[in-house]
Each structure stands twice: as C-alpha cells, then as structure tokens.
Amino acid sequence: MTGRTQQYCISRNLSIYALYLLLAGCGGNGEIAVTPTPTPTPTPSAAPTFAEKCAGLQGKTVATAEIALPTTGATIGDAQVIAATATAPEYCQVRGAIAPVDRFAPAINFQLNLPSSWNQKAVHFGGGGANGVVITGLGNMPGSANSGTPIPTPLARGYATFGSDSGHVGSDYSFGLNEEAYLNFGGDQLRKTLDTAQSIIKTFYGSAPKRQYFAGGSQGGKEAFIAIQRWPAKYDGIVAYYPATNLVAQSVGQVYQVQAIFNTPGAWINPTKLALVESRVIQTCDPLDGVQDGLISNVAACASTFDFAPLRCPSGGDDGNTCLSDVQISVLRKVSTRTTLPFALDAGVNSAPGRPTYSGGSSGLYLYGSSGSYQDLGLGGIIRNFVTKDQSQTPTNHNPMTWAAGWLRHSVATDASTADLTGFRNRGGKIIWVHGLADSAYLGQASADYYERLRSFFGDTALRAFVRMYLVPGYDHGNGAFNVSFDSLPVLEKWVENGEAPAADALVAADGAAATRGRTRPLCDYPKWPRYRGTGDVNLAASYQCVP
C-alpha cells in the first residue's frame, strides 16, 4: 500500500467512526434518532351558547333523591329561548312535570324561567283559588296594579321565577278524592316544585340561588305562609297579599251564613237592595276618617255606629227595592258579625270574622245567589270532596258539627294557622304582608286575627323584627275602590339582604283603580289606619297620618 492510499484509508475510517459516534450520541446503539413532531395544543371548545344550554335541558330528569317529598322524579318536556321584549329579558322557558307516586294521581306541572342575565336569586310564585292552572312565573308581584307607574316583574329584574298547577287541572275540587292530589294542593306541591326548580337552576347556572323568595296572593298568599311554616330553612322572605291562612274557619262560617240566608224565608237580598246597603254604609262611614274619598278607613267606628234602621221598610215586610224587611236586616246583622264555631280547628282556631259590611266590602259576594236560589261558587265542592267525601252534601243541608273531624283534618292538611314561626325568624326570614279591609273574598279581619295570634306568641317587638302587615282601606281582593300598586320586592330585598327594615308608616301605595288612578295613601303599620290631617291634597299620602 502506498503512502497516499494508506492516508486515504485512515481518513475514511476516522470519518466513519465520527459518524458512528454522532449517531450513537443522538440515538444510541447506532440507531438514527428521529426528532418527534410536536403534538398540537388542542383548541379549547367554545362554551355553549345560552340557546344551546337551554336546548340541552330538554328531556333532562330530576331524580327522586333530589326531591324531599315522595315522587317518582321530574322530567323536562320542553325548553326554549324566549327573545327579549320591551318589558322582559331574554330567558329560557322550561316546562315539565313532577310524577306522582300514586299512578292515579295527576302530575304536578310546572314552569321555570331562567334569564340570560341572572341575579343569582329566585322567586317562587303561589297560585290562586282552586289552583288548577300552571302559574308561569311570568307575572308580577301581587299588588302591582296599573297606577300609571309600571313596576318591573321579578323576571325583568333578573330573577329566576317558577310556579306550578299544584298537582291537578281545573277548579271543581274533585281532585280532593285522590289523597296524593289533595295533599299536594294542601302544600306538598310547594316543596316538590321548589326542589325540582332549584335542581334545574343549579344544573343550568352551576349554582343554586343565593336568595329564595316567595310571592303570592289569596291561595298563593296562604302558600307563602305554608312554605315558611313547614320548610323555614328554604326561604329568605315572602310577600303575601290577602293570604287565606285560616280559610277552613271562614268556610265553616260561610256554611252558617248561607243557611241563615237561604234556609230562612224572605232573608235573601237581591242585588238592587244590596247596592242600597253598600251605598248607605259608604255615605255614613266614609267621613269618619276625616275626608270623603270613597274609602272607609275607620272601620271600628263604622261598626259601632252604623244603623240599619233608616233602611227598614215601614211595614217591616218586604215592600220593594227601596228598603229592607225586618228579616233581611236581621240576617245582614248576623252575617256581618263574627261566627263562633262549635269546634276548634288547627292551632285552636274556633271563630271566623263576619262579612266586611262595615269596611266598604260586599256583604253578598260568595253568599247570595240569583232569584233567591243559592249559587254554589266553590263551598259545596270543598264540603263534598275535601271534608265529607259525600256527594249529596250541599252548603244548605250540611251540618258542620256532624263532620267536625273532617273539618279538623281539612284544616290540618291545608291551613297555615300555626303561630310558631320561630324557625323562619331565627334564620333571618322577613315577611311583607298586605290585606284589604274591603276584601269580600277572604276577609281582612282574618289576617288581623292571625297577626294577633302571632303577637301573642312572639310579643310586639320581636314580631316587628321580621313581620310587617298593612291593612289597606278600600282594597278588595286584588281590586276595589283603592287598588294597591306597591313595589314590594325591593322593600323585601333591602330588609333581608341589607338589614334595612321598612320605617314605620313610611311606605306609600298608589291607586290603580281606573276612576282614581295615581292617588296615593300611606301603608300604615297594623293596627294603625290613615286619617286625613285636615289640610293638604286629599289625593296625596303626605296629607294623611297613621293613627291607632
């Protein structure tokens, strides 16, 4: 081998060795190392839109374990986005049903409204009357009559809102023959609806409501009290208008009133005569509060001074539509006086107030028929389907004493009578409570009766720490000579959330009655009433003073 050849071989071998070393250092074992291609970072999935979240609720279920009282779960049948309007925000409307345990019992149908801009609070709306239609939750708080100044709905304020049909459809009370449906109507449906709604709210928003309120009038007002009596830890505050808390006592009292009218020959008073009586009462008692404004504020003075004698027919008989017979005057006095019941109901309630004759209400609503024949507007259905389960019973032939046990059971199942609201008070719950003195459907005096039992239980100072009640002159059952328009929800919010209690006699209600729309009156803390100061605009609240 020549020297040139030897040099080439050495150089070549060194190059191969260097390459070997390079390969060994990169991949080891002489293998060629391949640099891995970097894995791309996944692009985050876009958050579902409000519409997608809403549509995703359809068909979802709520398990039985999430509902405190017995059911077989709940199912969402429909969920759709409703576009914003001038008075309502964009929201997801959810409709569904809570299935019963008894296959013969009706489901509880409900509606839940979930706004796209949620304030993390909710309002549970109560029903009314026989409670056989779905309460949509789209309406306003009770006491929001059109006074010329619109009051925003809870939904418009960002609340999730909901309600139900209480577990039956219709108003004939025949559902009372099914025990589960009856107990749902009596209050069980409230907890079932609440638990279902809150479960869906948590699924949709990721958290349960920070504040849960209840609002209702009449049957719904009673439901507000049932809710805080039975489940005080579940609600932060209620707004209750003309609540039928002790409705069973009034129903028993009405049986005796109906029989006094329709089982006594010549006692029935036709509408023309009844209007004569009501006109005479207003004429006599309206000025007793210092001003003639079509409202009776000083009801106690009216009851003690009003005299039927000027309305008496000269012969004492029924001489026509311009006067009253002795029998008619006698029955009017009877139905306008408190009825003592022959037995006690739940919580010891044993009497019912008389008709609101002396406060500007109708003496005849729900009592007087046409042409002297009794017109059954619901009392008979209560007797037959709730109390006796005997379809031959009517208000004119029913003996309450014979069925005392049935009336007591009905009171326990459906009334809101207990004075012990300690659990609700201790958790910081608050109550705004409004009732009309001229209420002819459920009497304002019945609210005064319940308030007095609360005051006996708690004492005045302790009661006022969490309850405010306002009895409003001229206010009937959501209407009347003075139709209340009062923005109650912010008042409740400030009290519950900020500890700002309503100042005594400082709240003002506007009138939504067409003839007097826009006038204002103070809402006087019970047992005060508004008296005209003697000077000032009679249509302004500032011209009135709340007096005992």
What does the largest sheet look like?
A: 10 strands, mixed
Question: DSSP helix count?
Answer: 14
User: In which order are the strands of the major sheet placed?
Assistant: 1-2-3-4-6-5-7-8-11-12
- What is the correct CATH architecture of the largest domain? 3-Layer(aba) Sandwich
Stretches where pLDDT falls below 50 for ≥5 residues? Answer: 1-34
Mind telling me the CATH class of the largest domain? Alpha Beta
Strand-pairing-aware structural class: alpha/beta
Overall geometry comes to: globular
Q: Look at the structure and give the mean pLDDT.
A: 92
Radius of gyration computed on alpha carbons: 34 Å
The CATH topology of the largest domain is given as Rossmann fold
Number of domains: 2
Helix content: 25-40%
> Strand share of the residues?
15-25%
Instruction: Look at the structure and name the CATH superfamily of the largest domain.
Output: Alpha/Beta hydrolase fold, catalytic domain
Terminal residue distance = 135 Å
Determine the oligomeric state from the structure.
Answer: single chain
Number of strands: 17
Please outline what is shown here:
It contains 14 helices and 17 strands. The chain has 548 residues and is of the alpha/beta class.
Q: What can you tell me about this protein's structure?
A:
The protein has 548 residues and is of the alpha/beta class. The chain has 2 domains: 111-244 and 419-547, Alpha/Beta hydrolase fold, catalytic domain (Rossmann fold, 3-Layer(aba) Sandwich), CATH 3.40.50.1820; 250-413, no CATH class. Helix content is 32%, strand content 15%. The strands form 4 sheets. The chain has a 10-stranded mixed beta sheet, sandwiched between helices. Strands 13-14-15 form a 3-stranded antiparallel beta sheet, with no helix packed on it. The chain has a two-stranded antiparallel sheet with strand order 9-10. Helix 4 links the parallel strand 7 (211-217) and strand 8. Helix 5 crosses helix 10. The longest helix is centred in the middle third of the chain and has 27 residues, at 179-205. It starts with a helix and ends with a strand.
